Amino acid sequence: MNRIWRYLSVFATIMILIVVLMGALVTNTGSQAGCGSSWPLCNGEMIPTEAQKHTIIEVSHRYVTGITGIAVVIQAVWVWFKWRSKETRILAVSSVFFLVLQALLGAAAVIWSQSSYVLALHFGISLLSFASVLLITIVVFEKTYWKTGRISFDLSKGVKWNFVLLGIYTYILVYSGAFVRHTDSSLGCTDFPRCNGEWIPPIVSRAGIQYLHRVLALILVIWLIGTLIYLLKKHKDIPLLSIGLLIAIIFVFLQALSGIFIIQTNMMLVFLLLHAFFVTCFFGILVGLTMVTLRKHTK
């Protein structure tokens, strides 16, 4: 029976990742209005009769989200009653809450026009939904498969707070990236590393929005590398933490590389989707590391 629940958890995690990427596909292909202003129906129909590209993309996103929602709710209910710990119950509630919130924000964007500030929240909420499901999956494997059981480390408050602040800062960075896209600022800078031939472009402009996102990303890279160096020096006895952070940094560099290619290829769709994929993987790893560092260490 535990094997079935592990399969379900992996399925839910993969599906929520697909939902995030399909949301990026909807945004980057301009398919938000593929079903008109109708929700949950598509142009007033359950199955649209007109198979236009934007309609297919939008309605497919809705169907996949619905299937994913069923899997996430089943997973959440099971872990709620299976393990009555505070951690699992918080994660169970979070996974359902953020998935529903994500769907409601998407519905609101269809039915009513939304500002760029609100639209940029959608991707960030999607990441929180993915992270919640991923963390539940980690807990499921800890309790039913891994012989090591519950993962925890003996760390100082400073290290714990560092990971918490890294997570918060990353979320701000993700929001800035989504804001770049929803304000059509992806090509505000047409070169790299400079911006339109300048090191500091006018801040109140599309170039300024793009430039601010770059600066925030650079700060994150420096912060992550500094954290990794500290862990390698002070916590050589915890290789899992350093290896996890190294993998996270690799995803950050891949995300930056895909961002450069977005500019160089004039926003080719494959690089836009890779950009969303890499940041989702990075965020998931970082949140997973944050969870295990915050746990009370038990020998």
Automatic annotation (TrEMBL):
Subcellular location: Membrane
Keyword Iron: yes
Record has Heme as a keyword: no
InterPro entries: COX15/CtaA_fam, COX15/CtaA_HemeA_synthase
Pfam families according to UniProt: COX15-CtaA
Pathway per the UniProt entry: Porphyrin-containing compound metabolism
Membrane-protein topology: Multi-pass membrane protein
Gene Ontology CC, one term: membrane
GO molecular function per UniProt: metal ion binding; oxidoreductase activity
GO process terms (BP): heme A biosynthetic process
Segments traversing the membrane: 7-26, 63-81, 90-112, 118-141, 161-180, 211-232, 239-263, 269-294
Keywords: Cell membrane, Disulfide bond, Heme biosynthesis, Iron, Membrane, Metal-binding, Oxidoreductase, Transmembrane, Transmembrane helix
PANTHER family: HEME A SYNTHASE
Protein name as it appears in the record: Heme A synthase
Organism name: Terrilactibacillus tamarindi
